[in-house]
Amino acid sequence: MAVEVVSEKLCIGCNLCVRVCPVDVFRLQGPEKEQKAYIAYQEDCQSCFICEEYCPTDAIYVAPENPRPIPMPY
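and the corresponding structure tokens:
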């Protein structure tokens, strides 16, 4: 799978997921002092779980399996 949920209720708009994602999946939206993260490019997610690990409020859920093959450099 991939990142499936960013809970608007739990998200505090800290921007950590945006900063730590190696494939740039997340963005922030909303008024400046009330911004929340959202999944902008779900198809790019590689299910690395970094965003889920860094989220201080557990607002992000990444599915445990990614059905798309991740290319390996040779």
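(Above: one complete record from the training split.) The chain has one domain: 3-62.
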